[in-house]
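Bit of a strange request maybe. I'm writing a small parser for structure token strings and I need a real example to test against, not something I typed by hand. Could someone generate the tokens for this chain?
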Amino acid sequence: MTDASVAPAYPDAVLFDLLTALLDSWTSWNRAAGSEAAGRAWRAAYLRLTYGCGSYVPYEQLVRDAAAEVGLPESAVGALEADWLNLTPWSGALDALRALAPQCKLAVVTNCSTRLGHQAAALLPVRWDAIVTAEEAGVYKPDPQPYRLALDKLGVEPQRAVFVAGSSYDMFGTAAVGLRTYWHNRVGLSLVDGARAPEIESPSLDQLLPWLARFGHRQD
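Reply from user aminoacidic:
Good idea to test on real output. This should exercise your parser:
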């Protein structure tokens, strides 16, 4: 039982995956692909490509290659980018960000180009202390470098920060860096083989603030 008399003890920084933990990009991929099944297959192919590509390959190229891999036409790629500025926050995302803004630094670490990453981050009406893209880091998550670059920009040690993931691929990177992790598993994905389970896995962000408020009181 939490002692109500104990003051909240937030981390110094909260880092977020942008396109799956905060924004509903799944709907855009499905819409561009023509169906949920096609969108899921396309997105899965894209994730496999980012995981295995090594040094940064343009995001737009990986999206195009993944579409071709699953048999989608070039027009699907154009439709996805055309819909980019229509990405919407998941329910609870804006409330969580507004509550955290006075308490700690906020950052996003996202697997896309710098142009698209900044456009997507601007859809959320908060002041970001750091925005790190795969293009800027030179590699895609879950390589540790994007997470470390964000921490360096924030001036925060990994033990004083947490990461809110949208994909279990993130758990490879956060484990390597030493970031405690909350998995906002909105669409019910399975944990990727070999990934370390997060401290919390939830289909919503409802548990995020209570978890973060206990950050300084946890002994694990």
